[in-house]
């Protein structure tokens, strides 16, 4: 049986949740579990996140999956609803809405009494410069004041565009706009910290923090690893060596014959490829890990297989190869691929087996 396997470490996930609690001890935690818990599998992750105060998801379908699994914590739909017919389902399942444009506001008001009676908070999104979702400063104060006057409990929310970048000028602009609105709408609950901001700006933790990537043990920063941040990788992605070849100088490996050996070498074929979610294209040399040792990937990644250089290693058929995990960090694989760890985790396919450890 093919041994491509994703292991989900529940203890690591709990450890990372506790790191959030250490960094933001007075804030409630909205654990982001959108996109199937960043590719880790909602079913495999929710129990380990059981002590979180709330969950955050992108859409109604993701929220309903959490409710179907029996979890009763508050859930915020961070993109709100997409049509009016979702409102009765929102109410039946005790879900909280992020409001970011006038149509959503109108839909909410049609169900004002039911929403308020259930004690649900309205998250009102400030567009302070990211220019995706939200009301501008010129509009949001009136929106919040009118909601408060109608009896809604509001949370002022914002998302940083560059929290991972030191000294980016937009960071200060976003902070100033958020604080301006918060003061104008006082008293009001507030939330603006994602993973990067939780590490960088404890003074902005306010009432709710919204950790995402840090929960899963990947870094939100390009220049700091998970180890640097004292968070633990939750996903370990492995496969096994299924064949060994000895090649001579001048022989090529893989599609396109892009790798040509300069000397005799031993290569191993590993049962993994882009059909499993392992990335195909690399800007710089990529590695896997065997017994904790970095081992180069050579030639093109195929749909189902890769080749690695095992010259001088004790790596017989059946040897387990870590594609990413505790030794070969997913962020390092992503950097070699010219992307970020978020993307690699989220685009995992359903083909590898999944196991909780």
Low-confidence stretches: none
Question: Helical proportion?
Answer: 25-40%
Annotation field: number of helices: 12
Rounded to an integer in angstroms, the radius of gyration calculated over CA atoms is 23 Å
**CATH fold category name of the largest domain:** TIM Barrel
Q: What's the rounded overall pLDDT mean?
A: 96
Q: Could you give a short account of the major beta sheet?
A: 8 strands, mixed
Class by SSE composition: alpha/beta
Shape designation: elongated
* CATH homologous superfamily heading of the largest domain: Alanine racemase
Secondary-structure element string: EHEHHEHEHEHHEHEHEHEEEEEEEEEHHE
Percentage of residues in DSSP E strands: 15-25%
CATH class of the largest domain: Alpha Beta
Q: What is the name of the CATH architecture of the largest domain?
A: Alpha-Beta Barrel
Total strands: 18
Number of structural domains = 2
**Gap between N and C termini, in Å?**
20 Å
Protein name: Alanine racemase
Keywords: Isomerase, Pyridoxal phosphate
GO molecular function: alanine racemase activity; pyridoxal phosphate binding
Binding site for substrate: 132, 303
Keywords:
single chain, 357 residues, alpha/beta, TIM Barrel, Lyase, Ornithine Decarboxylase, Chain A, domain 1, 2 domains, eight-stranded mixed sheet, eight-stranded parallel sheet, 12 helices, 29% helix, Ala_racemase_N, alanine racemase activity, EC 5.1.1.1
């Amino acid at each position: 049986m093919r041994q491509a396997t994703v292991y989900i470490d529940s203890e690591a996930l709990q450890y990372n949740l506790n790191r959030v609690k250490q960094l933001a001890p007075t804030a409630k935690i909205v654990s982001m579990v959108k996109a199937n818990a960043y590719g880790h599998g909602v079913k495999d992750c929710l129990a380990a996140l059981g002590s979180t105060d709330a969950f955050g998801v992108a859409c109604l379908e993701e929220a309903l999956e959490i409710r179907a699994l029996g979890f009763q914590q508050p859930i915020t739909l961070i993109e709100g609803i997409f049509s009016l017919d979702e409102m009765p389902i929102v109410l039946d399942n005790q879900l909280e809405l992020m409001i970011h444009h006038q149509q959503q506001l109108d839909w909410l008001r049609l169900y004002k009494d039911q929403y308020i009676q259930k004690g649900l908070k309205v998250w009102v999104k400030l567009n302070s410069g990211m220019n995706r979702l939200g009301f501008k400063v010129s509009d949001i104060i009136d929106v919040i004041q009118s909601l408060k006057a109608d009896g809604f409990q509001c949370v002022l929310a914002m998302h940083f565009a560059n929290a991972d970048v030191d000294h980016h000028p937009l960071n200060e602009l976003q902070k100033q706009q958020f604080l301006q609105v918060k003061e104008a709408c006082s008293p009001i609950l507030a939330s603006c910290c994602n993973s990067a901001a939780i590490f960088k700006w404890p003074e902005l933790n306010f009432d709710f923090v919204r950790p995402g990537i840090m929960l899963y043990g990947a870094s939100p920063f390009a220049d700091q690893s998970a180890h640097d941040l004292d968070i633990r990788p939750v996903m370990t992605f492995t496969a096994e060596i299924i064949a060994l070849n000895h090649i001579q100088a001048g022989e090529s490996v893989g599609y396109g014959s892009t790798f040509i050996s300069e000397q005799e070498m031993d290569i191993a074929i590993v049962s993994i490829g882009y059909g499993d979610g392992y990335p195909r294209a690399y800007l710089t040399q990529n590695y896997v890990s065997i017994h904790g040792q970095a081992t180069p990937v050579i030639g093109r990644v195929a749909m189902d297989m890769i080749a690695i250089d095992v010259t001088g290693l004790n790596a017989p058929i059946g040897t387990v190869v870590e594609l990413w995990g505790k030794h070969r960090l997913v962020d390092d694989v992503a950097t070699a691929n010219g992307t970020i760890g978020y993307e690699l985790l989220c685009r995992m396919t359903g083909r590898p087996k999944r196991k909780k450890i």
